[in-house]
Records
---
Amino acid sequence: MNVASYVGATQIRSCVLGNESRAPTAAETEEMKQLAAEAMRDGAMGLSSALLVPPNTYLDTRQLTDLASAVQPFGGIYSTHIRSEGQGIFDAISEAITVGEQAQVPVDIIHLKIADKRLWGRMPEVIKLIAAAQAKGLRVTANQYPYIAGQNNLDALIPPWAMEGGREQMMARLNDPALRARMEKDILNGVPEWFDHYLAMKGWESCVVAGVNSDKNKVHEGKSIEQISKAVNKKPADVVFDLLKEEGGSVPAVYFLMSEDDVRTALQTHWVSIGSDGTAVRPDGILGKGKPHPRWYGTFPRVLGKYVREEKVLALEEAVKKMTSLNAAKLGIEDRGLLKAGKKADITIFSADRVIDKATFENPHQYPEGIEYVVVNGTLVIEKGQHLGSKPGRVLYGKGKK
């Protein structure tokens, strides 16, 4: 594969402030801006942020704007996993728009969705909010993956105060019965301005453990917190706390939070591109561990098979554009994304009649069907569905590369 990278806003902030939640001084802000500029000269595509859990939540609108303004002279964009995908989604999108407007950079919202059962059916309002910004001349777009579940971590269920100071501090609090009781109360009742996954999913059956490292907990992979709770005779919150304790503070989890109608509405919006939000995996070896989100294997063929061929949610040509030239244009990659003389030859040839995803939540490590040939930088990599062992991928750099 070809690989490109953003520079992470939290990555920069942590270099200067560590895990402290305080605001930076003027000198620290300047240092962070210099780090952002340095990354752009190294070839980053722009600034990225993921604002759901600490220490990412310590980045306020001002800090994000300062960092985004530092990537602006280099032609960078601001790519953001917004602060809330639930009750606070409209404010979170407005914040992303504000950052783009004040820093004068394009904005791309990472995997646009409504991840809260209490807000199902309101995707048209989300689209309208972004379209209003576009009508003002702002460059705001989004991407999505075609599933009704997302993947995060069990630590996303931990209230922000309990994550203060980093993972080590959180682990210490998980050993304190009084603090555990307080955490459980906050999870079940909510905390102001916190995207509470439990309230968004309306029940523990919608949270599924995707992967663990310890042999002891392998039996829980692919099971919901509700199922595990009944099996081990513990309260669901205690299952979450104990798994985090036993797995070193990190347990990948799949959350079923979205509606099919909202997914389709976003998919039919012409400025929403397709992205897997996944990691490179294979069915065997260490990359075949656990039960990750099937989007890691199935995103693009799922759109082509399920939403184009079977359900006719959008046209084939529009789907291909959302996967290729639309994404390249967002990043300012001018020599790829189209089948055109003079462009780099990154080409996928598939059977429109057969292409389909095979990965499921129960058995995710399955390659799709119907992709016959893949060419990367003019070199054949997949032939008749088989990998040839060639590895012609390159690092792609942003416009600011020196």
---
Amino acid sequence: MLRLFGEVTGEPARMWGSSMVGYGHQHYVYESGREGDAMRLGFSPRSANLVLYVLGSEPEPLLERLGPHKRGVSCLYVTTLDKIDMDVLRELVAKAWADATADLR
């Protein structure tokens, strides 16, 4: 994951909290005035699943080809990478990175 995300994003890995590995940075401000900082993309190796924070806009065509996973609002849960199509995962990461950085251009 470190190599794949690093190659696609061109960014160094950074720890976000105790278990999330993130790439890129974004500052956000809500209408309420609450603000904070977050990674643009990343992953978290957890005991039950590998959590991938890679969902950009309209990922469905790629998700159909990815392999076994569960989907959250903005993330994917993968139990084993052996059954995942890594080329499709690379495409998902690239698409999500393009979506996440579009506002920077």
